[in-house]
């Protein structure tokens, strides 16, 4: 897949912007704060339906405007496709494919993008929510139907938690809240699908993660990833990490129901849903030790990069759209010379690579093929390096 043209209206610091892109490496060069990352963010939105920098869409709408519009012309071989999304400050966003209105959730069917940015260090060093978000976004890219499953699960979770808070306020205890059983059924049905898919995805990521880490770090530190599940009895959100027992013959759904029953009193006391995929954590290890708290700065960068590159390899392997667009946002300045060269060698193999950098010399020569200058929201004509 190749993005041939990007058009923005009232997006971030751009009133209007038009950018032509080509196959192979495309490098956006400009000082910090000029709008380079905004271009990368706009392209990635079609694939992830979100930003890697903010949790809400409103900050992406230019100050003083009610909505932002992103348009992209994609090439899949000889086929051309026009995607458009309107991000509204209020109300639902709107989307079009080749001029026809579609649900916004359908956009990832047509665009596959893998973006790596310095913020991705939070995947390995931050809270469990960052790792859950990473895996869920990849799930949606591989199988867009999971966007609906995740949305439905979050809706049921909100409603169930609201019922628990109401019961707590009224002093209801034990089995007196019979209506909770209905929400338990819905939570288990949706949550089981999500847990099973996440566990399968972790297994699929294992081999490409090892290969990518070794390629980036220049050494095999045996990177591993495994889910700690709240349905197995612990609470990863509170540091009680209990790995799934692979020999446990009970289904995830059965363990989910049992865990809900065991936590019923605690949930009523706290007014909070304490079991489910929203409490799980993806455990990352190198050299047999947790990355969070034990890995060096270089190892943490290598794990974060390897996770994104492994994602790209998965998408490349099972996609009919061709290679995903690989975006490296302000990454090279953070890497030593060896990691820069190794990353450039891996990136060269993708149909299209988009790089942002404040300093041109930070980007390895192999990727400095096509340069686009960005200055204060103004895009200068592309030039060959």
How would you describe the overall organization of this protein?
This protein has helices spanning 36-48, 121-125, 128-142, 146-170, 180-217, 252-270, 291-294, 297-318, 337-347; strands at residues 2-11, 14-20, 24-29, 67-76, 79-88, 94-97, 100-102, 113-116, 224-228, 281-286, 289-290, 325-329, 352-357, 370-375, 378-379, 383-384. By secondary structure, it is an alpha+beta fold. The chain folds into two domains: 1-112 and 322-385, P-loop containing nucleotide triphosphate hydrolases (Rossmann fold, 3-Layer(aba) Sandwich), CATH 3.40.50.300; 121-318, Glutathione S-transferase Yfyf (Class Pi), Chain A, domain 2. The strands form three sheets. Strands 3, 8, 12, 13, 14, 15 and 16 form a seven-stranded mixed sheet that branches. Strands 2-1-4-5-6-7 form a six-stranded antiparallel sheet, covered by helices on one side. The chain has a three-stranded antiparallel sheet with strand order 9-10-11. Strand 6 and strand 7 (100-102) form a beta hairpin. It starts with a strand and ends with a strand. The mean pLDDT is 90.
Mean pLDDT: 90
- The CATH homologous superfamily of the largest domain: RecF/RecN/SMC, N-terminal domain
The second-level CATH architecture of the largest domain is Up-down Bundle
**What is the top-level CATH class of the largest domain?**
Mainly Alpha
Q: Helix and strand layout, with pairings?
A:
Blueprint: E1 2-11, E2 14-20, E3 24-29, H1 36-48, E4 67-76, E5 79-88, E6 94-97, E7 100-102, E8 113-116, H2 121-125, H3 128-142, H4 146-170, H5 180-217, E9 224-228, H6 252-270, E10 281-286, E11 289-290, H7 291-294, H8 297-318, E12 325-329, H9 337-347, E13 352-357, E14 370-375, E15 378-379, E16 383-384
